[in-house]
Amino acid sequence: MTEIFSDEDTAKLFQLVHMFQRSALLHMGYIPDQNGNRYFDMAEAKEGIDLLRMLQNKTKGNLTDKETQLLRSVISELQLQFMKAPTLNRQAEDDATQSETIRETFANPKDGPVEELSNSKESEEE
Fold first, then answer.
1. Is 110 within the bounds of a domain?
2. Does the residue 73 lie in any domain?
3. Phi, psi of 58 (to 5 degrees)
4. CA 90, CA 95: separation in Å to the nearest integer?
5. CA-to-CA distance for 31 and 34, rounded, in angstroms?
6. Based on CB atoms within 10 Å of each CB, which residue in 25, 58, 110, 112 is the most buried?
7. What is the pLDDT of residue 117?
């Protein structure tokens, strides 16, 4: 990591930034936890973004231009993803519901939905 950053303190700073970034993405449902579970907690995600913004304000004037730009980019990207997260969550819930319906259909085919695929006239002619 030190090849990317100018010194060890900069590397440690961006480890901290990455920690808050990962937490925010986790709580927005973009990445799973270590057990593969996904969460949707916008208050926690916002807290992570707010902490990064506080860090940005408190370090103003103490970072290099490259460090400032990198921190600004991380925050901007998280804010954009924050706006998209509710749609992602709704889609994930819809997909889970559909998957459960399919699973239930295969588990209990007699109780599953039936869709007539043949044309009744064609069936009579055969």
1. no
2. yes
3. -70, -25
4. 9
5. 10
6. 25
7. 72
Is 71 inside a domain boundary?
yes
Structure confidence at residue 27 (pLDDT)? 94
Q: Is residue 119 part of a domain?
A: no
Host domain of residue 61:
8-85
Q: State the total domains in the chain.
A: 1
For residues 18 and 11, give the distance between their C-alpha atoms in angstroms, rounded to a whole number. Answer: 10
Per-residue DSSP letters for 11-55? HHHHHHHHHHHHHHHHHTTSS--TTS-----HHHHHHHHHHHHHH
From residue 4, give the alpha-carbon distance in Å to each of 10, 66, 67, 76. Answer: 9, 10, 11, 21
Judge contact between 9 and 66, C-beta under 8 A: no
CA–CA gap between residue 84 and residue 79 (Å, rounded): 9
Integer CA distances (angstroms), 114 to 6, 35, 98, 102, in order: 64, 36, 16, 12
- Rounded average pLDDT over 35-54: 94
